[in-house]
Amino acid sequence: METVKYLLSEDRLPESWYNIAADLPSLPPPPLHPATGQPIGPADLAPLFPMELIKQEVSTERTIPIPEEVRAIYRQWRPTPLFRARRLERALDTPARIYYKYEGVSPAGSHKPNTAVAQAYYNKIEGVRRLVTETGAGQWGSSLAFAGALFGLEVEVFMVKVSYNQKPYRRALMETYGARVIASPSTETAAGRAILAEHPDSTGSLGIAISEAVEVAAQRDDTRYALGSVLNHVLLHQTVIGQEAMIQMEMAGDYPDVVVGCTGGGSNFAGIAFPFIGAKLRGERPLRVVAVEPAACPSLTKGKYAYDFGDTAHLTPLMKMHTLGSTFVPPGIHAGGLRYHGMAPLVSHLLELGVIEAIAIQQLETFAAGVQFARTEGILPAPEANHAIAGVIREALRCKEEGKSEVILFNLCGHGHFDLQAYMDYQAGKLRDYEYSDAEVAMALAGLPSVGA
């Protein structure tokens, strides 16, 4: 009998998050205060985040216990299944063995609740009443709305305008969970009004939406900001994915030669890859790790490793990361969750150390990969996840050419049930590729702040 899925019982749910900072040969450069250029301290972050999350942000402990209240909610969908993509393997005629961890089984349909539930919990116990955030494709906004409903928190979401219009059903899900959703840029904040005054037809960006959310969060004592990717504590919470996958790969009698993940801000990539990278850094098992990003928003492959703001209005601390510039407004590709101008400092640092690789793939190739995956494996992937699948197909075909039976693992970070318009547009030939030219890169990077090394 050919085993297709590997399941863990609820008692195998990880008890701790894994912190890759403990195994790094060197730590990433610290975030800097935008006014002083000096490393920020806990007091600088306190207006935005609860203290427990701030502690996690700077921790170098290898494991951080998951509160039982969070694990109790995780058990609704975790541990998630690991699948062997046998039908895709046969369709590709590859000797490679392909596995995928499927995070689309969560209530919100993606990996994002892994951190949304944790963030809502820590805010709730600190007495916060309202959370405000941004979202691109809506997976993060949906997840925070879900978590807010569980903990009785008000949730306000600034949704990038192009996605607000492209994905009305994702917006409807957030509103069903009780969140208020605003198209960004909006007239509700000074940051939004400034953008609209200069660009009335702005389609928005995650950088702009972050500016609006941070501005609102700073105005009320009972309100905090929640971020769905990029920051260390967010990546930390996602490592339940890779920890489960390690056990499941052992059940399958395999270990990955290659781990592939799509990258926008870095959260789902870190979730699947960091536990395996940690084992590699500790000298336990070698492997390659490939980050796949859109050619239309290529922060890792064309961006500069430099200190930059996390938002367009320059309200956030400066982070050392691969960036396209905080004023970058990406084309309106359907992979809205991968359209952030910067990459997580930890992921950026790993690329600088040569621990991971990065490639950029065009939109049409990713949708072709998603359609092939749907027709073989039966799951319709989110456009973001299609980037990982396209990267996996490239690796599988390389194995075919080289006659190598390598093991490939990737994170299928979410389903595409709210992205059907994107698939309809692809089938109708309406989608096109966007090449981000070197000249555009140079223009976007021209305004990088002149602080930090």
TrEMBL record:
Stretches assigned to the Tryptophan synthase beta chain-like PALP domain: 76-414
Catalytic reaction(s) noted: (1S,2R)-1-C-(indol-3-yl)glycerol 3-phosphate + L-serine = D-glyceraldehyde 3-phosphate + L-tryptophan + H2O
Pfam family, one: PALP
TM segment ranges: none
Single GO MF descriptor: tryptophan synthase activity
Pathway assigned in UniProt: Amino-acid biosynthesis; L-tryptophan biosynthesis; L-tryptophan from chorismate: step 5/5
UniProt keywords, alphabetically: Amino-acid biosynthesis, Aromatic amino acid biosynthesis, Lyase, Pyridoxal phosphate, Tryptophan biosynthesis
N6-(pyridoxal phosphate)lysine: modified positions: K112
Record's GO cellular component terms: cytoplasm
Primary role: The beta subunit is responsible for the synthesis of L-tryptophan from indole and L-serine.
Similarity remark: Belongs to the TrpB family.
Protein name as it appears in the record: Tryptophan synthase beta chain
Organism: Chloroflexus aggregans (strain MD-66 / DSM 9485)
